[in-house]
Structures are given as C-alpha cells and as structure tokens.
Amino acid sequence: MSKPTKPLWQTPWGYAESFLIAFGLIIIGFLLEFTIQSSTGTSIRYPMNLILGAVFLALLLGFYRLIRKSSLFLFLSGIPASIGAISVLTLLVIIMGLTPQVPMQEENLITKLSLNQLTTSWPFLFINFYLLIVLALVIIRKSIPFKMKNWGFVCSHLGLWITIFAAGLGSGDLMRLKMDLHENKTEWKAYDDKGNYYELPLAIKLNDFMIDEFNPKLAVVENETGKLYEPSKPSMIMIENDLTTQLHDWSVTVDEFLPVSGRAGDKYHPLHDFGAAPAARVSVSTSTSETLTGWISCGSFNRPHESLKLNENYSLLMTVPEPKKFSSKVTIFTPDGKKEEQVLEVNKPQSVNGWKIYQLSYDEKMGKYSTLSVVEVVKDPWQIYVYIGIFMMMIGSIYMFWRGNKVTINNEQ
Amino acid sequence: MIWNYFLMAAGVSSASWILSALIPKKEILRNALVLTGILSMAIYIGFLWTSLERPPLRTLGETRLWYSFFISIIGLITYFRWRYLWMLYYCLFMSLLFLFINYLHPENFSKTLMPALQSPWFVPHVVVYIISYAFLAASTLVAIYGLYQIKRDKFEEKYMLVADNLVYLGFAFLTFGLLFGALWAKEAWGHYWTWDPKETWAFITWMGYLVYIHRRYQKPKKYVSALWILALAFVILLVCWFGVNYMPSAQFSVHTYSMQP
C-alpha cells in the first residue's frame, strides 16, 4: 500500500500541510497569548465590529481574486484544508470540554495560556478566522459558476459561515445585564457581571412577584455530618396528605400536611402569615422498633426548621420546596411615554425597545415570600443574522436527510 | 376523564402499533395501522389541549405524549423515504415505551417540570436527539462490522454506502438537535450558545461526524480510515451523552439535572 511520499510543501498540498498550517496557527496563538494576554474585558463594539467585518469581507474577496487561479486556492477550498481546520478547532474545544472554563486568580501555565478561558484567547480566534477563510473559499468554489444541484451544499455551508461570522462580530454588541426589581418600585438601571451600572432606555416597575412551589420532600440525613443518607433510591419522596411510603428502612406515614403553618405549643396550625412554613406530622416505624410520631418542618427565613430524630445516627427532615413556576407582573415604561403591563416568566421573555426581558431568579432565602425579582435584560442586535444562518443550516439538514448517501454515490462515479 | 381517555388513546395506539409489527410484509395494512396509532395520539393531544385550555407541555406526562407522537411520525416519514423497517420499529418501540412509562406512572401527569424545561423547544430538542442517536449508533455497528470484514478481506463497498446513509440521516437530526437547543436557550436563558459543558461536547460530537463526512467525500475509496473515524466519533458521542456529568468542567452545567436534589 505504500506510495512514494511527496516532499512537504510541494504542490499539491494535502493533509500534512493542512494540519501543519492549522497547528502552526494555534501555536502562534498560544505564544501570543503567553506574551500578551488577550484582555477579556475589552470587546469590539459597534461601529468597530461592523467596519472590521466589512474590511474582512473585502480582504477575503481581494484574496480570492488574487489566488483564484493558483494552487493555493485549490488547497484552501479543498477538503484537506477543511478537515485540518475542523480537527484543530475540535482539539481546542476538547480542551474546553475537559477543563473548567472559569476565571482563575492564580498565575500558572493554565492561566498564562488562557486554557481556562479559551473562547476569548488568541489561538481560538486564529483558528476560527482560518476556518472562516477556508469555509468562504469553499462556498465560492461551489457557487461560481452556480449550479442548481449544489444549492443544498451552499445553503448549509453558507448558513454555518453566516452564523459564525455574525455570532463572532456580534458578541461585542451583546449586552446581558441583570436588574433587581423590588415590589412596587421602578427600576431603570441594570448591572453587568463586573458590577458596572448602565441606564436603560426603559424602566420596569414590579407590581407582584408570584411563585408556585412543589410540595417539600422527605429525606433522611446523617446526624453528625448533616449529609443526605441515600443507601437506596429514591432518597427523597414528595410529601402528600395521607402518604404512606418506604424510605430506606423506615416506613413513613404523613398524618397531616400543612402547606403554610406556624408552631403554637406542641403542634403546628394552619397559618397564613408572612414567613409561614410548610409542616407535616409524620409517623415512622421500622420492623424492629415502635412507631415514632412527630412534627417536621423545613422552616423559612424567619422560622426555624424542625427534624425528627430517628435514632443515634439519622434524622428525618423536610426539604425546602422547589419552585414549580415563578413570574413577575410588571409595568414597563419607555421614554416615548408608553407603558405596558406584562407578565415575565421563565421561557417567556418579553421584547421592549430592542431589549428582551427574561425572568431570571428571586431571593431564594425568602423563597415564596421574596419581594425581589431578578430579571435579565438582553440586547443582541446581531441575533437576526445568526438566526438567518441557523435557518439556512436547518434547510441544509432537511436536504441532507432527503439526499442521504446520494452524495457519496455520485462522487464515486 | 383525562386518564380514562389516555388509556383509550394509548390502548388504540399500542394495539395498532404492535399489530403492525406482526405483519411487516403487508405494507399497506401495516402503514395504515401505524398511521392509526399516530392519529389516536394526535386526537388525544388535541383533546388534552382543549380541555386544559393550554398547550399540554407543562408536566412530565404531557411531554412524554409528544415524544410518542413525534417519534412515531418521524419513524414513518423516514420509512417512506428510506425503507428502513428497523428504524420504523425502533421508533414505534420508543413511542410505546413512553406511553408505557406514562401508564405505569399516572402521577407523571401532575408532575410539573422545572420552569426552564417548560418550553415548546424542549420536546423537539429531545425527540431529534433520540432519532439521531439511533441512526448514529446503527452506523457505528456498521463501522465495527466493516472493520471486521476488512480484516477478513471480505469487505464490500455496499457496507460503506449503508454507513454513509445512516451518518447523513443521523447528522441531519444531530444538527437539528443542536440548533433547536440553541433557539431554546435564547428563549430561556438569553443566549443561544454559552459553551456549557454539554454544549461543548455536543459540538465536538458534531465536528467528529463532520470530519467523517468530509473524509468520505474526498476519498471514497479509503475505507479503513473512514471507518475508524466513524467508530471514534461514536465514542465522543457517548462521552457527550453519559460522560459529561463526571468531568471537572461540568460543575456549572445547566444540563446536569441529575445532580439536583
């Protein structure tokens, strides 16, 4: 199977050259990163990104005109170059997939090479640029002259190109800010990750924050460590009235469950009060011991929790209820004097004045008594272009599903 | 009411799908039975939608109905296009499985999903992945078989074409899964791509199959390397599916629901 090997860098270039170029690019990138670290704080904003994008496009077209008759064009728009770029980018992404991508304080080789923040590093930028160039030349080669049978190919590749291009350029203009809304107050300032405040072209008044919760669950913990005891699954069981269930070695019966209650004397009573917490009267027995009965409660921000000691080692307790649904009733004001009533809910953002408003979280310590609602406000002017790319890729995928291996069959003939 | 009608609809679907599996040769009758099962699901979902006066997307049980519905439809469409009877039966089996889980756990219909999962994108996102993984797993089997045949010098080109077709179909669904995920993330979290560990690994998987497709396109006669790439890509897919939760990078992932209490 051995064939005469071609000296490196002698045309036509193939896989060896392709991988050398791609690896060379990320090595230069890492060297650059090592000497002058890319500052993560600065990003290219409007109009700078638009200008740079236009310059890149112009250079790309100029580059194409310059090389279109040379063997360099055949190489860069060919499959070995594509596979080299894809593989080396994949390698970088695998590193990202293995190591936590979070800022770190200490200075070591990892932070020096930005291995913990690869998406904002030089090597990542370089390989993406290279991929964009290769992909663009591939698209040009397939579409000049345009043949109808190539439409699926062009659609998926161009879609991918537009997505990377728009997402990359747009990342500088993307603003994701948080806003703390307090009940009955109007807020127009939002802050970013670093704590910088921005004034928005809209103001939001929180009229009411609402939360639905699941019932709390039963769980057994180790007395000494407070750790969840889970020799068998499920280790947590949702409390319901009259529930009888087996939790590990114990048989637990819920005699009475009060979603909101307060303790008075030796028992809990239903109570609708600020901070009233769920409580349950439970009976617990094992095959060897007699029945234990007592009250448990998960407590709230202003009430203590109460657990039932099962023996020397373990206690039965009630977990803090998880949210089922939470939403904010808000009034949104815009500078032109308009106001609109909206409900913000997870997965149901509202758009106002070019900003999208998302329900994010609330004061978890206060649980359902939270009067704070945290919303995220997002402005992403490039989103539409990314979506165009995404939809082109989807159409390309449908084409792919329909054509299947006809592509390879044609290619072989 | 809702439960009794569920039993009726699920009964009709199960009966017609199981019956269709018993008569694989009688094509028209079989397809009619598959279609009947799908219709009965559609009618039930429609009934549920009107009687709840909201899209039935809020509870675990409701999402499983949609899984059954969509998976069986895709199975039938794929069958019409490609005549993969095994895929049709795989899809019907998965649909039946979801109905059966609902039957065993009636409480699923009252178990509300966590807020972030209550999205119209959730069901399609999961469904296309279920289909895609099946195609890609099948392509891996072909790859292993192919490598074995090459060792015995009995390889035939048609294996390669089978592998190609499975990868193309699987990859199309994989792309949809990735893109549906991105659109959903934009609605739920404000950004379509955040390099969450699961996203990162899904992207790596996607790139792996991309390498295979391009390699095949360029060198259709080089089987061994292509088959190895295909086998390796599935290893990455498995990492993405099961392995991510155990990696140091996964501490902040939004996809690790299993870690929540």
UniProtKB/TrEMBL annotation, chain A:
Its main location: membrane. The chain crosses the membrane at residues 12-32, 44-64, 71-98, 118-139, 151-170, 382-402. It is found in: Membrane. It is a multi-pass membrane protein. It holds the Pfam family ResB. Residues 322-365 form the ResB-like domain. It comes from Marinifilum caeruleilacunae. The lineage of its organism: Bacteria, Pseudomonadati, Bacteroidota, Bacteroidia, Marinilabiliales. InterPro entries: Cyt_c_bgen_Ccs1/CcsB/ResB, ResB-like_domain. This is ResB-like domain-containing protein. Keywords: Cytochrome c-type biogenesis, Membrane, Transmembrane, Transmembrane helix.
Automatic annotation (TrEMBL), chain B:
The chain crosses the membrane at residues 6-23, 32-52, 64-80, 87-106, 126-148, 160-185, 200-217, 224-244. The keyword Protein biosynthesis does not apply. Keywords: Cytochrome c-type biogenesis, Membrane, Transmembrane, Transmembrane helix. It is a multi-pass membrane protein. The keyword Membrane applies. Residues 88-248 form the Cytochrome c assembly protein domain. It is found in: Membrane. InterPro entries: Cyt_c_assembly, Cyt_c_biogenesis_CcsA/CcmC. This is Cytochrome C assembly protein. It comes from Marinifilum caeruleilacunae.
